[in-house]
């Protein structure tokens, strides 16, 4: 979000507003109306699980982060015959750092980096 705010302050910016700030609070959460629609559209005799908002606080351990960085640096992943061919290595490293530093969801990271 702060990246868009910074972009808006630039004199050569083509952005009019921050698209992330236009989203309503809890925009990705199922409402009671969404739940009702989901339950009415399910075929009879089928079980339906209504998605619920689950708070998660999962961070990579230092070993996991080091393993990802080694693979980004060209080390062969376990169970593979050769290292990954990373055409956009710098971009992937930036996305990984962005994910670690901001805990932004993957979809949002994709939108930010477009």
Tell me what you see in this structure.
- The protein is mainly alpha-helical and 114 residues long.
- 44% of the residues lie in helices and 0% in strands.
- It contains five helices and no strands.
- The model has no long low-confidence stretch (mean pLDDT 79).
Question: How is the secondary structure organized here?
Answer:
Elements: H1 2-9, H2 32-41, H3 62-72, H4 89-102, H5 106-112
Question: How would you describe this structure in keywords?
Answer:
mainly alpha; 2 domains; 114 residues; 44% helix
Q: What's the number of domains?
A: 2
Q: Provide a count of the helices.
A: 5
Residue stretches low in confidence (pLDDT < 50, at least 5 long) are: none
Give the SSE order as H and E letters: HHHHH
Overall pLDDT level: 79
- E-strand count: 0
Gyration radius (Cα, Å) is 20 Å
Helix content: 40-55%
What gross morphology would you assign? Answer: flat
Q: Which structural class do the helices and strands define? A: mainly alpha
Q: Let me know the largest β-sheet.
A: none
Please give a quick description of this structure:
44% of the residues lie in helices and 0% in strands. The protein is an all-alpha fold.
């Amino acid at each position: 979000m702060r990246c868009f705010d910074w972009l808006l302050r630039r004199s050569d910016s083509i952005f009019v507003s921050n698209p992330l700030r236009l989203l309503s609070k809890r925009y990705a959460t199922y409402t009671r109306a969404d739940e009702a629609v989901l339950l009415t559209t399910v075929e009879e005799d089928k079980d339906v699980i209504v998605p619920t908002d689950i708070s998660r606080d999962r961070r990579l351990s230092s070993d996991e982060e080091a393993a990802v960085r080694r693979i980004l640096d060209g080390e062969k992943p376990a169970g593979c015959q050769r290292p990954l061919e990373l055409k956009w290595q710098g971009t992937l490293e930036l996305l990984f750092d962005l994910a670690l530093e901001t805990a932004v969801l993957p979809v949002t990271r994709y939108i930010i980096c477009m």
